[in-house]
Structure formats: C-alpha cells, structure tokens
Design a protein that fits this description.
single chain, about 150 residues, mainly alpha, two-stranded parallel sheet, 4 helices, rod-shaped
C-alpha cells in the first residue's frame, strides 16, 4: 500500500513539466497562419468527401463484378456445348464479366487510389503545419467569417 502512494507521487511529479508545457504553449495569432490552417482543414474535408464517393463507386463496381462472376460460375455447368445459342450467351456473359473486371482493376481502382493518395497527402500537410497548435479564438473566428480558400 505504501509503495502505491509513492508511485502516484512520482507519476504526478513527472507529469508536472508536461502540464506546464501545455500551459505555456504558444498561441498562434497570425491571421495568415490561421487562414492557411483553415484552408488546409477545408481541403482535407473536401478530399475526404471525394474518397468516400470513390469508395462507394469502387464498392458498387466490385459488387457488380462479383454478381457477374457468380452468374458465370452458376451458368458454366448448365451450358449445352452442342447448342450454339447457349455457347454464344455464355460467351457474351464472359465478355461482360471480363469487361467489368477490367474496369474494376483499371480506371475504378486507379481513381480510388488517386483520391486516397491526395487525401493522405492533404492530411500529412495539415498535420505537419497545423495539428496540435492552439489558435487565438478571436482571430480564428474572424478568419472563419471571412475565409476564402483557393480552389482545389
């Protein structure tokens, strides 16, 4: 029991410099720096929305491909190879599935990956320049009221 009391006292003594450092943290008052961070934050939010949209598009294409693939697997054993109409219908289904697979593996995946890459870069930029900073609330409010950021 007595050792526990010392552990608490030591932990509290070790935490004091950290708490003092937080209280002494520099408050950013520069309107330009605050505006830049607000614009970076806006960019991250916009790119997050783009990633979500790309994710939904990717998932829809993936599900469409999976459904076509399932139809191919289910149809394959039922194809009468002696019936040219069955063979042609199955070839058409295979071509449709292959096109969906190529689209998923190509443009859809590339577009989604590019959106994720842009988002990750924006988050890293925001984190490097703005995360963890304390902003003067009055200047922050003023900058939010008049915020105008460059187009993406």
């Amino acid at each position: 029991m007595r050792i526990e009391g010392w552990r608490v006292a030591i932990a509290a003594a070790l935490a004091l410099p950290c708490l003092a450092g937080a209280a002494d943290a520099q408050i950013v008052r520069s309107p330009d720096e605050i505006r830049a961070c607000l614009c970076k934050e806006q960019t991250v939010a916009s790119l997050d929305a783009e990633v979500q949209a790309q994710s939904r598009a990717y998932e829809a294409k993936r599900q469409a491909f999976a459904a076509l693939d399932k139809r191919v697997q289910a149809s394959r054993p039922r194809v009468d190879v002696n019936n040219p109409a069955d063979v042609e219908a199955f070839k058409h289904l295979l071509a449709e599935r292959d096109e969906a697979g190529d689209n998923l593996a190509g443009p859809v995946t590339e577009s989604y990956a590019a959106a994720v890459k842009r988002y990750n870069a924006a988050v890293a930029d925001y984190n490097g320049a703005c995360a963890g900073k304390a902003f003067d609330q009055d200047v922050l409010a003023e900058q939010k009221r008049t915020l105008s950021c460059p187009k993406l």
